[in-house]
């Protein structure tokens, strides 16, 4: 028995190591490429190990003549805006769907789910013409609005599942005390579903941070580009050295990774509260 | 919170208890409903409308109604059906691979071993990497001649295919990048479900002397099934509409022209918005069918599980 245990532990460690290498390699390779001089990259002469003395090169894009820092800032504005707006709307909608019966409830639920099926590419042209009429093109606010329409339904889904798992009795005493529905939501429900709120926040943030298609189509001014647009503009052009391009990719990736690792525990518990418990 | 929370503040004053109960849900749901109406339903209906016109990109408001002409020509051409086949291959392979690998990784990471925390962090990392960055690094990995992919296949004696150009390898290249990116999501969700499997279930089979795999099949898998079905649906829907990773890797060439990429190319490369909208609508119908089939199967599965 003990022998068997030890063997399976060994197999487990080896498999985990292999999976870790596969999962981590592209990120590692981004770093390795960013620290290799570009002439070596063009020669096809990239070392498997990064040259740590050149680790500072990870920031080289900030010294280049592209406004990459500015683009990162734009992406941060888009991401935080999307997160705040999505959560504000989603918290209320999730509470309504979880706790009340009302006319159009089924329709709202279906509508929210159906947005998950709509390809962005299909809505791109109609949204573009709609935003042109509303004067929302070429501004970060318009991108926050459009990202929210995709991020908010996911947040509703996560929050509703979490709220479904909260017993009614908890709110009942507050209701007897005469609290308004809004106060109950704010003071009682929200603190309980905090982990799910955090998970929804991270997912909405990623939506805003990563989004490329709308950001690229709706924004004309180079100064207002999102980092995703700026980074994609390097693909297939040769004026920016490759190591600089990868330094940009890394700087675009790092905030997302750090944010994600900090929130990881909450994401897992938030995603699974209620909905996928089995 | 933010400005959009304001409407509820203007909610009717709490008059009578009975009344308030009826008003509250509408106030709570209003923002989301209006949002859906403005930014999803409106453009969607404009898209439906556009699919019956001959609208061109350079004159987006000057389209004339031409009935079902767009649909007839789309359904009559090979390009659309190719893109349907490509979408099915892409979706099927993405769902199958991400579910198998994600579940395997979750089972692997579920029990303690030295370095587990680190391994788990790295294994979930791909999910956090922005798609454009994923594309950039995979383009470099697939780079013709010098890329890592060619070095590996060269060393294995498999030749050095041009991954993103060669129609025999384009789909594989796109699939590898996609599965790498989406598998962590499956892993995270399955891991959470695994952690809710009661220990007694494991204990019972261990006493019976069952080995790991049969324990998994007999005890854990049935417990995971509801979770896996939900994840499978999400993965299917998301794969159906995934655009960026495919378009930025191959531009829809090398046999990777999925429906969504086809829509984009028809609209922005062919400047034919009417046809693009028609293709998009047909794609939407297809994913609706998949969703309905899913819900029917889900209901049947739940009934069966209820029998046991």
UniProtKB/TrEMBL annotation, chain A:
Residues in ABC transmembrane type-1 domain copies: 72-263
Segments forming a coiled coil: none
Gene3D superfamilies, alphabetized: MetI-like (1.10.3720.10)
UniProt-listed SUPFAM superfamilies: MetI-like
Example of a GO biological process term: transmembrane transport
Similarity-based family: Belongs to the binding-protein-dependent transport system permease family.
Protein's recorded name: Carbohydrate ABC transporter membrane protein 2 (CUT1 family)
TrEMBL record, chain B:
Bilayer-crossing regions: 23-45, 88-109, 121-142, 172-194, 214-238, 245-264, 276-297
Topological type in the membrane: Multi-pass membrane protein
Top-rank taxon: Bacteria
The entry's keywords: Cell membrane, Membrane, Sugar transport, Transmembrane, Transmembrane helix, Transport
First-listed, main subcellular location of the protein, grouped into a coarse class: membrane
Compartments, record wording: Cell membrane
SUPFAM superfamilies in the cross-refs: MetI-like
A UniProt-annotated Pfam family: BPD_transp_1
Keyword Transmembrane recorded: yes
GO CC aspect terms: plasma membrane
ABC transmembrane type-1 domain: residues covered: 84-294
GO BP annotations, alphabetical order: transmembrane transport
Alphabetized InterPro entries for the sequence: MetI-like, MetI-like_sf
Record carries keyword Transport: yes
Family statement: Belongs to the binding-protein-dependent transport system permease family.
Protein name: Multiple sugar transport system permease protein
Species for this entry: Allonocardiopsis opalescens
